[in-house]
């Protein structure tokens, strides 16, 4: 294989992030600062196969993925499409040492286990709905 | 005045909260077999936990991130899940030992079988975790735990040969009739008891529960740097009492009644009452801390909502985890296993797991993205590296020594 010297990338507008270093495995907080999940994986828009046309749009992050996908990062393998739980990237409001969302965590698919445990178990135990004293 | 009160309260609870069932049992066992020949390990352990707790508290206060979030973020999911597995299991083992300890302390007070006390003890721990405010559970158990000072009082009442004790402590040697691997095995056990990893999960998560900021750092430092060494003195007093009373009669420590025997001999019923209250508070406090730690580690790894500052319905999976862990601990105790034995194993496995939590904290407390200008200073880093070495050696040597010595038999 011939080796190519890579040209320097064009200057990017805005903040530059290393996805591996400052996105994966970071805590995700909702609009009110309540933890929702951790960034278990991210989904990137398709990169065309073969030669890339000069005017092609750069790939973008489309979603934070969570749920069972964590197991595939630990043990390998692939999930069926139905098991992916996504938080669309448009919900993200900022990326610092944590990823903040601009929406309420309550309405997201990603928080369904929390809601299930709350509604079926914790809410039914006396005192669960009160502030600690 | 209010501030002075807060500082004093913090220090007192740090002293009372330092000792748990692991320290009680291991120090008494070591004192009865090796005299004060292993006191130096307690000193090494106390400096280590001061360094470690202070670092993790600072990371939590400055970055607002608790230990296990950081462990996963730094090590990636594979290494972190292995770390979580080990830490969680050892924490569960410690939790089991503490709940058993509560039952044994209640048995000392009432002569009712510990098996009957265990469900009540577990329920008591749960109800406090479920309903009580974080600051209350911290302060009440810490202050009542101060009754353990009776070990120091008992030591004076026993009128020991002070110069003999000092000689044992200053020139440590393996006593006749003990093998040197056994000596080192107990050195590691004692080190693990002083530096139990759950204290770090608890300390860093507690900093977030109590909403510490950079402003609270100096107070937390004084709590740790004054409270823990004084707590360590209590540990030494326990070992010294055993060395004075139990060692000459070659009584082996196999139950709590032998741990408290020197106190009862020195101070009679009143002292015994104090020591029972102290042990009850210490084990109950540590049971709360380990129960919370089980929830903290799992919730922080998966990014769940956690914390006692939230209502249980606002941190549902966190509370469910703690309920399940208490039930698991209770299940283990119901097999009839001796809680003292669980304790002895848990402190050794704690030593094995120490590098897993220590290393990520050392790394992150040097990361300016998290810490800004509050990164470690040179002195802290120097000490940190020395301790990293000690912890690694202890961790690697623990299991081989356990096998060679037949768990210190």
Question: What descriptors fit this protein?
Answer:
heterodimer, A: 133 residues, alpha+beta, SH3 type barrels, 4-stranded mixed beta sheet, 3-stranded antiparallel beta sheet, 3 helices, 7 strands, B: 409 residues, mainly alpha, Hydantoin permease, 16 helices, 80% helix, 0% strand, globular
Q: What's the end-to-end separation of chain A, in Å?
A: 69 Å
Number of helices of chain A: 3
State the CATH architecture of the domain at 19-44 and 58-124 in chain A: Roll
User: Which radius of gyration of chain B do the C-alpha atoms yield?
Assistant: 20 Å
Overall pLDDT of chain A: 86
Can you identify the CATH class of chain B? Mainly Alpha
Indicate the CATH topology of the domain at 19-44 and 58-124 in chain A: SH3 type barrels
What proportion of the residues of chain B form beta strands (DSSP E)?
Answer: under 5%
**Tally of domains of chain B:** 1
Shape category of chain A:
elongated
CATH topology of chain B: Hydantoin permease
Proportion in helices of chain B: over 70%
Provide a concise account of the structure shown.
The complex is a heterodimer of chains A (133) and B (409). Helices cover 15% and strands 21% of the residues of chain A.
Structure description:
The complex is a heterodimer of chains A (133) and B (409). Chain A is an alpha+beta fold and 133 residues long. Chain A has helices spanning 19-22, 69-75, 112-120, and strands spanning 27-29, 35-38, 41-44, 61-66, 85-88, 92-95, 99-101. A four-stranded mixed beta sheet of chain A has the order 2-1-7-6, with no helix packed on it. In chain A, strand 1 and strand 2 form a beta hairpin. The longest helix of chain B has 47 residues, at 256-302. In chain B, helix 7 runs parallel beside helix 11. With 409 residues, chain B is mainly α. Chain B is 80% helix and 0% strand. Chain B has one domain (2-405): Hydantoin permease. Chain B has helices spanning 2-18, 21-34, 39-63, 67-110, 114-131, 134-145, 150-157, 162-170, 180-194, 197-209, 217-245, 256-302, 316-334, 339-364, 368-371, 378-405. At the A-B interface, strand 2, helix 2 and helix 3 of A face helix 4, helix 12 and helix 13 of B.
């Amino acid at each position: 294989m011939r080796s190519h010297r890579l040209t320097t990338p064009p200057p990017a507008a805005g903040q530059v992030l290393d996805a591996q270093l400052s996105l994966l495995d970071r805590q995700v907080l909702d609009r009110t600062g309540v933890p929702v999940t951790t960034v278990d994986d991210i989904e990137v828009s398709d990169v065309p196969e073969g030669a890339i046309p000069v005017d092609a749009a750069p790939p973008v992050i489309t979603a934070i993925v969570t749920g069972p996908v964590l197991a595939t990062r630990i043990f390998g393998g692939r999930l069926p499409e139905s098991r992916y739980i996504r938080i669309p990237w448009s919900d993200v409001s900022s990326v610092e040492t944590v990823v903040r969302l601009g929406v309420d965590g309550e309405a997201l698919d990603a928080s369904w286990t929390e809601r299930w445990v709350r509604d079926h178990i914790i809410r039914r135990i006396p005192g669960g709905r009160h502030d600690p004293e | 005045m209010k501030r002075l009160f807060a500082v004093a309260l913090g220090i007192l609870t740090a002293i009372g909260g330092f000792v748990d069932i692991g320290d009680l049992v291991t120090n008494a066992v070591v004192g009865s077999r090796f005299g004060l020949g292993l006191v130096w390990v307690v000193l090494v352990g106390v400096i280590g936990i001061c360094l470690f707790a202070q670092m993790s508290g600072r990371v939590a206060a400055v970055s607002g991130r608790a230990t296990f979030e950081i462990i996963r973020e730094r090590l990636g999911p594979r290494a972190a899940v292995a770390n979580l597995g080990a830490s969680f299991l050892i924490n569960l083992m410690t939790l089991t030992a503490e709940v058993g300890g509560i039952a044994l302390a209640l048995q000392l007070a009432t002569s009712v079988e510990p098996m009957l006390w265990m469900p009540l003890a577990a329920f008591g721990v749960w109800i406090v975790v479920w309903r009580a405010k974080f600051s209350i559970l911290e302060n009440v158990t810490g202050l009542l735990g101060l009754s353990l000072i009776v070990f120091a009082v008992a030591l004076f009442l026993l009128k020991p040969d002070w110069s003999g004790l000092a000689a044992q402590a200053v020139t440590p040697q393996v006593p006749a009739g003990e093998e040197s691997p056994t000596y080192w095995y107990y050195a590691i056990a004692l080190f693990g008891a002083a530096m139990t990893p759950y204290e770090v999960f608890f300390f860093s998560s507690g900093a977030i529960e109590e909403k510490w900021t950079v402003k609270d750092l100096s107070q937390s430092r004084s709590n740790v740097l004054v409270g823990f060494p004084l707590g360590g003195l209590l540990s030494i007093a326990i070992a010294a009492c055993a060395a004075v009373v139990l060692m000459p009669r070659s009584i082996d420590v196999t139950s709590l009644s032998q741990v408290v025997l020197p106190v009862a001999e020195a101070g009679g019923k009143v002292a015994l009452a104090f020591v029972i209250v102290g042990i009850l508070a210490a084990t109950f406090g540590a049971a709360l801390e380990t129960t919370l730690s089980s929830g903290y580690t799992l919730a922080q790894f998966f990014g769940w909502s956690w914390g006692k500052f939230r209502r249980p319905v606002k941190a549902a999976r966190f509370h469910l985890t703690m309920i399940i862990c208490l039930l698991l601990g209770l299940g283990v105790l119901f097999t009839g296993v001796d809680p003292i034995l669980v304790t002895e194993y848990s402190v050794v496995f704690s030593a094995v797991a120490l590098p897993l939590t220590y290393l990520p904290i050392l790394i992150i407390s040097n990361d300016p993205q998290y810490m800004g200008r509050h990164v470690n200073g040179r002195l802290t880093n120097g000490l940190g590296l020395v301790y990293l070495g000690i912890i690694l050696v202890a961790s690697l040597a623990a299991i081989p020594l356990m096998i060679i010595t037949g768990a210190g038999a």
